[in-house]
Specification:
single chain, about 140 residues, Aspartate Aminotransferase, domain 1, 5-stranded antiparallel sheet, 6 helices
Length: about 140
């Protein structure tokens, strides 16, 4: 059973449910959630989405009204959505051009279609290096 089928819109999961759902990716999930909470002094909010691309419950982090990222649990993994807005575009483009992030994130960046609200990077977390790239993207987002 996939994540979106485990909890209906009426049945809100808790933090432990999210952590257990990501299975083998649990250490990365917990490390990232702890990092966000401690580094930016933010608390997660759990929201239900009917979006066909990533339906079900997700975890959102915001600071001072600005979205940091959204986490989508999957079986044995998770996806982090980071939006690269116009203010961050030059810094992230430079980071990618200089090869200062993983090849995987570089490919995602180039494949993401620029839109009026920015590039939406749906990053599947499968290793610590990718998680470090996401942390860098979030720090750039907050610096702008």
């Amino acid at each position: 059973m996939n994540w979106s089928e485990q909890f209906s819109q009426e049945l809100t999961p808790n933090g432990q449910d999210f952590s257990l759902a990501v299975g083998k990716a649990r250490p990365l999930w917990e490390e990232f959630n702890n990092y966000l909470s401690q580094t930016y002094q933010v608390s997660p909010t759990f929201q239900y989405s009917g979006c066909s691309a990533q339906p079900g419950w997700n975890v959102k982090y915001k600071k001072k009204g600005k979205s940091l990222c959204t986490l989508y649990p999957e079986i044995d993994s998770f996806i982090v959505l980071v939006v690269i807005g116009a203010k961050e575009e030059d810094a992230v483009s430079s980071l990618v051009a200089q090869g200062l992030c993983t090849t995987y994130v570089q490919k995602l960046y180039h494949a993401a279609r620029p839109m009026a609200i920015g590039r939406w990077l749906m990053v599947k977390v499968h290793e610590i290096q990718v998680l470090e790239d996401i942390k860098t993207l979030i720090s750039i987002r907050l610096e702008s």
